[in-house]
Amino acid sequence: MNHLPQAWGRPRDDVYGAYDGSYLQTHGPNQHTQQPIVTGTSVVALKFSDGVVIAADNLASYGSLARFTDVKRLRKFADSSIVGFGGDVSDMQYLDRLLNSLDIEEAYSSSGHTLNAKNLHTYLSKVFYKRRSDFNPLWNQVLVAGLDDDKKPFLASADLLGTTFSAPSLATGFGAHLAQPLLRKVAPDEIAASKLSKEQALAAVKESMKVLFYRDARSLDKYSIAIVTAEGIDLKEDEKLENQSWAFADQIRGYGTQVN
Amino acid sequence: MFRNNYDNDSVTFSPQGRIFQVEYASEAVKQGSVVVGIVSKTHAVLVALKRNAEELSSYQKKIIAIDEHLGLSLAGLASDARVLSNFMKQQSLSSRLTYGRAIPLERLVSSIGDRAQTNTQHYGKRPYGVGLLVAGVDETGPHLFEFQPSGMTQEMVACAIGARSQMARTYLERNLEAFADCGREELVKHGLRALKESLAQDKELTVENCSVGVVGVKGEGMKRIEAFKLYDGAEVRQWVDLVADGTEGAEGTEGMEVDL
């Protein structure tokens, strides 16, 4: 054994070869996100009279490969809000840890202050904007569902650029094209949404999830759905799409191998 | 001859377990002119006695608005209070920016408490030579906090700090039960009466030497607050005249006995 102290605790060169110091370099290219890798598809959400319904399927795709089929993309915050994540799954996990530590920090102050969904949405949008300004974006679009300062239903979107917007119904990804028109039929404006019952909203969201499964090749028939009201959160993470009907499928022309 | 060897810095205990520098800082608070704070179920008020260094100079500012929902009054080194109030303004603003939320009072006060405490534990630093009364409203209603140079902070129902403040505290203790159900005007009057108790024999309350700060809630939640307002000069005449000598009945004379 080498008796020199500077060699103690190091793998022996005669056994393992000299250590490749290039692994320890701090310079070299920045490793900023250039594209999402493992991704989640749509999140859909709809406001109703006294809350919000939000849903996302349990799939994480690796490109076109359905890689993970049990990924929970709806995350609770402080037992009062739900964040639904679309986009990169590793960035979702980072944000989830961030929000958990924020939740714990908030809970330290004894006297019942919590961040509501509106506060949470503002915070997330600032995080997204900071990261895109560093040219290191968090590759997500999120929907935040919960209640605002006046305990009214709150639903808003924030994305990787820090863009925010709000509407009685929202959908990310493919859902923005496929589900949003269906949801807008049910709730064209805030007034219509404030008259919706929980059952109506639930049915509309479930129907949207079904249509998305029919037509979005990166989707799954297992999904999570949450109802957020002043009473709390009812989150189910292992739902299965019901009453599927593929009768329309053989009418479809223009895809695949058939010519007409 | 008998020089105190244990008061050279704030990191050395005396054999009796005292930290003299911190105690000296508390003395600085007692040199400042008196300030009084009271809370009811709906309001928090600050009342302060201003001093002028000489006949020809202006009066030293005693109440500082921090944000829409809170303000503070100081007793002691005004320049130290400026440092602390600037920090509090930054914290309040940052909360509004990142969360879209008015910062909870308890959180803000403990953050300056932490700052002040580190000054009592690091060599080469000195404690702040100022005591503060912080009054404001948040989601959980109106609050009053006391801050001491030691880093101690606590929530109070009513409090007075500064020169001859014991007399004011005696008044507050005597009327403690009344405060909770007081309206805004009654609360200010109580504050001014407490202030009057602590005046030196030949002094009286005038529009020049009085400052009043008021903040309150109008209804449920943070949306409807009566923003912190500072009243100075002619604006305080409405209250000063009400508590002037001879204009009040038994209540006023009863308090006078304490002064003897």
TrEMBL record, chain A:
Q: What is its main location?
A: cytoplasm
**GO BP annotations, alphabetical order:** proteolysis involved in protein catabolic process
User: Which Gene3D superfamilies does this one have?
Assistant: Glutamine Phosphoribosylpyrophosphate, subunit 1, domain 1
Subcellular location as annotated: Cytoplasm; Nucleus
For this UniProt record, give its keywords in alphabetical order, as a comma-separated list. Answer: Cytoplasm, Nucleus, Proteasome
Q: Which domain of life is it from?
A: Eukaryota
Write out the GO cellular component annotations: cytoplasm; nucleus; proteasome core complex, beta-subunit complex
**General function of this protein:** Non-catalytic component of the proteasome.
| Family named by the database record | Belongs to the peptidase T1B family.
- According to UniProt, the name of this protein is Proteasome subunit beta
Q: Which organism is it from?
A: Hyaloscypha hepaticicola
Automatic annotation (TrEMBL), chain B:
> Which cellular component terms (GO) are annotated to the entry?
cytoplasm; nucleus; proteasome core complex, alpha-subunit complex
Q: Which residues form the Proteasome alpha-type subunits domain?
A: 6-28
PROSITE patterns per the UniProt record, alphabetical: PROTEASOME_ALPHA_1, PROTEASOME_ALPHA_2
Please give the superkingdom of this protein's source: Eukaryota
Q: Which InterPro entries match?
A: Ntn_hydrolases_N, Proteasome_alpha, Proteasome_alpha-type, Proteasome_alpha1, Proteasome_asu_N, Proteasome_sua/b
SUPFAM superfamilies in the cross-refs: N-terminal nucleophile aminohydrolases (Ntn hydrolases)
UniProt entry tagged with the keyword Cytoplasm: yes
Checking Pfam families in the record gives: Proteasome, Proteasome_A_N
According to the UniProt entry, the coiled-coil residues are none
Q: Which UniProt keywords apply?
A: Cytoplasm, Nucleus, Proteasome
Biological-process GO terms, alphabetical: ubiquitin-dependent protein catabolic process
> Where in or outside the cell?
Cytoplasm; Nucleus
Protein's UniProt keywords contain Cytoplasm: yes
State whether it acts alone or in a complex, and with which partners, per the record.
Answer: The 26S proteasome consists of a 20S proteasome core and two 19S regulatory subunits.
The similarity annotation says: Belongs to the peptidase T1A family.
Would you tell me the protein name for this molecule?
A: Proteasome subunit alpha type
* Protein source organism: Hyaloscypha hepaticicola
